[in-house]
Amino acid sequence: MCLQVYAQKETCSEELLVECLVSKGLEQIQITQGGTSGQKKSPNPKLQLIWGATMYHIDDLPFTVNNLPDVYTQFRKVGIFFCKF
Questions:
Q1: 5 and 39 in one domain?
Q2: CB-based burial of residue 83 (10 Å sphere; 0-12 exposed, 13-18 middle, 19+ buried)?
Q3: Range(s) of the domain holding residue 8
Q4: Do the Cβ atoms of 78 and 68 come closer than 8 Å?
Q5: Distance, CA of 72 to CA of 80 (rounded, Å)
Q6: Are residues 31 and 61 in the same domain?
Q7: C-alpha atoms less than 13 angstroms from C-alpha of 1 in its C-beta half-sphere
Q8: What pLDDT is attached to residue 21?
Q9: How many angstroms separate the CA atoms of 40 and 70, rounded?
Q10: What's the pTM?
Q11: Domain total for the chain?
C-alpha cells in the first residue's frame, strides 16, 4: 500500500518551507498493517506536488516561473504567441 498526500506546488519561500516541513513530517509517520500478531510496516506516505498556479502548465510556459509577468497583459502579449487555439 502506497499512501500519498496531494498538494498544489507553490513558488513563494514561505510555502516552499511548508512543503519541506510537510514532507519531513510524513517521513516520521509510522503506519502498520495487519493484526496484532503479523504487523508489517508500510512505506511512509509521500508528498505529491501538482502544478496548478497558472492557466498553463509550468513546462509549457515560454519563460521560467521566476520570470512570470506580474500583470496579465504582459503575460498575454508574450503568451499569445506560444498558444495554439
A1: yes
A2: exposed
A3: 1-53
A4: no
A5: 11
A6: no
A7: 10
A8: 97
A9: 50
A10: 0.63
A11: 2
